[in-house]
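Students often ask why we bother encoding 3D structure as a string. The short answer is that it lets us treat folding as translation between two languages. Here is a chain of 337 residues written in the first language.
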Amino acid sequence: MPVQYTSIMEEHQAVRNNVGIFDISHMGQLIVEGTGAGEWLNTILTNNIDKLEVGTGQYTFLLNERGGIIDDLIAYRIDEEKFLLVVNASRTDEDFAWLDRHRSKNVDLKNRSADFGGVAIQGPRIAELFHALFGEDVDLPPRNHIVDLEFGGTNVSVARTGYTGEDGVEVFFRASDATKFWNAALEKGKPIGIKPCGLGARDTLRLEMCYPLNGSDLSPERNPIEAGLGFFVDLTKPNFIGREVLLRMKQSGPREKLVPFRMKEKGPPPRPHYSVFENGERIGEVTSGTLSPSLNWGVGMAYVSAPHAKIGAQIDIEIRERKFPAIIEKKPLYKKS
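And here it is in the second language, the structure alphabet:
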């Protein structure tokens, strides 16, 4: 997956206005199954697996004992006791090793990443492309559902999820079918302005929505409460790795919080590791930053000390030894009209 195929701006606008396709074959795909698979996963992941019916998925976290984020992922229940975990590419081996180390005897774990690929197709015209690919009489799955569909003599899995703030699907298939599906999607999508999209557009799109990026906004040193993602942590579950740390932090409050911000002036865009100031005092550090193609402003996310993490607060971002004014905003930064 390149940074860009044509230009980040072009690809970004294709997703916001028509439809774009991302090659996500680099992402990891792990299969968990066995008589105790669901019960075991509930002791490993933060969200509540019991809430998943067959054919549905949820966003969740894999934590270390300190409550730090090893990975953020989507868990799909694809059978009563069989689950597909779609994990970040750079974490696949680490995730697999961690899960295997903590695995119950009645649970099987398989890394199918090398044998399977995937694409994310995102944009407001997704329904048109979906029907062009799968047939007018085939229903688009509901949000956060996953279904198996026939395509070109083989089966693919289609999940209605995404990372852009637009409607869309993620399609998973055998690696041997990857080229066939990619080319078919581009061909069928021509009349509606489809564009292949790279890592650059993925980053600008997700940042406008304040979706975190593992390795930048999320790390083993940060936990979901600090990242403002406590909604995906079920502390009513009696036992999962990292629970006690998160419970204490929920009660006492985090020392730092991840906040979105927007620059107040035109100028160089914010970048990771730039310092954040308020009234001359250093209060935090930028984790993600870019020029938003939709807003035409510099935007980003930063961890700042909790007392300063207030919507509407005036801050400064230090860029090349100069301070540029910014404002802490409410999520998401981009709102569709």
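Translate back mentally: The first helix runs from residue 8 to 17. Keep this in mind for the problem set.
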